[in-house]
Amino acid sequence: MGLTDxxxxxxxxxxxxxGFGLFGVGVGAAVxxxxxxxxxxxxxxxxxxxxxxxxxxxxxxxxxxxxxxxxAKGTQHLSVETSYEQKETGxxxxxxxxxxxxxxxxxxxxxxxxxxxxxREQHTLDLHMGVPWETVTFTAIGRNRQMFxxxxxxxxVIALKQFEGKTVTYVAVGSEWRQFxxxxxxxxxxxxxxxxxxSRKITxxxxxxxxxxxxxxDRGIPYRRGYxxxxxxxxxxxxxxxxxxxxxxxxxxxxxxxxxxxxDDRLNHLLSSAPQQTIVLLEDVDAAFVSREDTEHVKTAxxxxxxxxxxxxxxVLDGVASSEGRILFMTTNYKDRLDPAxxxxxxxxxxxxxxYCTHEQIEDLFYNFYPxxxxxxxxxxxxxxxxxxxxxxxxxxxxxxHFLMHKNSPNSAVDGAExxxxxxxxxxxxxxxxxxxxxxx
Length: 441
Description:
This protein is α/β, with parallel strands linked by helices. Helices cover 42% and strands 22% of the residues. The chain contains 16 helices and 15 strands. α3 crosses α4 (146-161) and α11 (359-369) runs parallel beside α13 (396-405). The termini are far apart.
């Protein structure tokens, strides 16, 4: 049998023809599938735009809020986030915020259909936040990435509008900063009465610093500034910093150096990663360290209280790895207990004494509480304090406490000035009486 006869016989064989046909169909299907896969890969790479936002990114919460209010507001699949807000009156309000649930959602933006997929990894935790790892992925047809920029900017603006006229406070949790409570209404800077001209001097200094980053860069000077406010307790150090942050539209990062879990490395990381446009506040720094000039007995008493060392803290302030663009405030009641190396220029650039009220401060505080009062009423109050020997040893906190007890009557505040003795610590009253007797002699 020749080759021609063999081919003819196979072609006429129905079983062979059927098998060959199936083989051809299978090959064709495989080729079509591969071609389709290649085409989809090529199409996704060149004609689709994808944006992935992990839960650790700052914009993650902004985008979820934006999706509910502006984007996928028509979705019926939602998750709830419950929060509590305490008003100044003490009343607590419960708020429910709805965000798209885990899954796939569709919406249109700037005339484009966008697919958004929110995924959650149940077996993967965010070690910093202790919650399951989540991502939100946006997919759109086309090559226009600008709409994602516009979307993120719109989400940012909406989120920041919630903080307009408010001061945001952050605290250190683990190795990151988290917002503490709800944003508070800005405190008017004029409500914190300091020595004449001091408030303006500090405010002008920070305002100039914020405008001169290029000046620092051109001269090779580290762009950071440190402030130390020292003085007796209750004189308005922390209150002034809070009001100053609100006045300059800055947030506040509060860090407790006495935290036993705080180490030199973690402190360095926290100061380097502090949110932008914030003031880093370290209160009562004298309680965190001992001076190298102190006696061995004092050093032994402080030993083991915290893990942050003085040398480590000094390196954080102006070492090689210290951060740029930082505004740092320290407060203390006892400046003489601080190590001289801690407050030298370059680490502390501006020092200010916040002490007991002068006569001008007493008068300004009186007018703050009683704006309709007369000059004579304010002077009568100052004269009353002189008679009691309290005019040079009274703090703004004490005066505020007294005025709150007589909030509706300036005359009552003058007549009841004797009650101020009850608001002053006993050792301070003794000093005031002794000073008054000395002056009378």
